[in-house]
Write the structure tokens for this entry.
Amino acid sequence: MKDGSFYEGEFNDGEMTGKGYKYDKKRETEYTGDFVEGQYQGKGVLRCRNKYVYEGDFDENMKHGYGELNEFKMNQNYKGQWYLNKRHGQGSQKYSDGSVYTGDWIRDKRQGHGELEYSNGNFYDGQWRNDLMNGHGFYKTFDGYSYEGIFENGLPVKIATKLHFELPEDKKFEIYEGFSNQFKIIVKSFNEENELFIEENRTIQLLFGFKTDIADTNKYENEVGTEFGFSYVPIQLLAFNESTKFKFDSYLVEENENLNDTFIDVKNSGEMNQTDQSGCKTVPQGEDIVSVGSKIFEQIANTQNGEALFNNLYVDSVQIPKKIEELREPKTKTTRKSSSNLPKVPSIGNKLSPDLTKFHINENSMNCVIIAEDISNPPIFGKRLKSSYIDCVLYLKQLETRKSSSRNSISIETKS
């Protein structure tokens, strides 16, 4: 041929028909296989230099029927059915990032039913339309999050957008200092219509602390700013694991990744029990003091049916922020270790009935806040839920009780 193309193979009535080989100079392609009257027809192999190779069925020079396409430049592979040069019918596509889709295709787009295995371990099994998740489907991430329901344009219908605390109606949320005053918190995933969004294993974190007034911002040690326009001073929020059995009252101590950051001094106390399933060490309380270096706690739970349940929470041996301590004891300076004296029988001070719109801050109670955050990593569907918070009152033990309870307790110290 004049342009440098050529054919080698069988002829019939002067036409390229039968088995043959053709080099197309203009398209830089090589075809080996069946010909009918000069066209690729039947089974063959089509190669384009440094770009792709297709092996399978042809009809009038087009990929049509069943075949496999390997694209070298894009590092992609498709194996399945074709219709007029387009992926059409059942097929499996491996993408350049390692993800694999197996299912129905219509004219080069994922449509019908299919499964997508993401390269990071995420998985979707369900309906597709116009190359996106549309219809009923099941989605699960590598770290356990899952959702089953209706999808539209790649996202769940009425997707969860915010966190919501479940609280009894018309009831003030009150917390009493002491191990025996345990309470629970339920945090739910809500959509914009304030409806519960059923999902599994979204990671939720609770933060707790003394809530500062706007006028007092930046006036306390360890103060933390929030997206809600106020700040808070963190207070340890503890959790007791009932599945761990032992003789004494117990206290959960965070297990640091670096053991050099934790120091333990035990004097004639009971032996330390095994680490529980939450990754926290359970330290038994004997007659002597056990000192444990630790960081401030954050409580973490995963959602089940759209709810994150935090059980057996309690607050004990609160370290009063500097400004509050001055209000309580203006004439006497006390040196207190930073958190946690555990009395066997906590004693509660006078129970006030504060108006929650303006919290009392005195020797009996503190204006506090509990914050719920979505810390799922990576973010679910590329976005984290909006955080939420509730105001609450923390009733403190009487000062005399706080002093006496420190004699036989577990104390936590943070190494500087």
Summary: The chain has two helices and 30 strands. The two ends are 84 Å apart (CA to CA). Residues 147 and 209 are 33 Å apart (CA to CA). The first strand starts at residue 6 and ends at 12.
